[in-house]
Design goal:
- The chain is mainly alpha-helical.
- 90% of the residues lie in helices and 0% in strands.
- Helix 1 packs parallel to helix 3 (114-154) and helix 2 (61-111) packs antiparallel against helix 3 (114-154).
- The longest helix has 51 residues, at 61-111.
- The radius of gyration is 24 Å and the shape is rod-shaped.
């Protein structure tokens, strides 16, 4: 009897490892989300300062170039924050599927129904697919971040 309980606990912990891995991915994405939002706020503040010139005074060409650069960066950051949001959602969905998988594994040991095992496997695979989707969004976000750096460097 005790060996069966140990087997159940071990089987239920396999998705738990993926929950922990997703937690680390979520932590990184949430940190990135905060950084991107803060950068958008900084750029918006800079844009506001550039556009509060008196109406009878035109911007210096350097200031006009910077304003265009900042506006372009804000647009790219808006897309970047959407990619981060999508990655966070995908990782969160993965965690939900891993929890469901773990619960179904425990339920399968109690009820011994084959369909529950199949459902547990499906839930685990759905969680893995969600992790893959989150990683793809994260990779796109990194690409977008590089594009923004190139925009900033081009104005130097």
């Amino acid at each position: 009897m005790e060996l069966t309980i140990v087997n159940v606990i071990q089987a239920m912990l396999a998705p738990g490892i993926m929950i922990s891995a997703c937690g680390l991915l979520l932590l990184g994405m949430n940190n990135k989300y905060s950084l991107v939002v803060n950068r958008i706020r900084q750029l918006d503040d800079e844009k506001r300062k550039l556009t509060t010139h008196p109406k009878n005074e035109n911007l210096h060409p350097d200031e006009q170039q910077r304003l265009e650069n900042v506006t372009l960066q804000i647009n790219h950051f808006a897309h970047r924050v959407m990619l981060v949001k999508n990655a966070v959602i995908a990782y969160s969905v993965a965690v939900a599927f891993f929890i469901i998988s773990s619960l179904l594994i425990g339920l399968q040991f109690k009820l011994s129904d084959e369909w529950i095992s199949q459902l547990a496997i499906f839930a685990f695979l759905a969680g893995m697919i969600s992790v893959l989707i989150g990683i793809l969004f994260a990779a796109q976000e990194i690409r977008k971040g590089y594009q923004i750096v190139k925009i900033e460097i081009s104005s130097l």
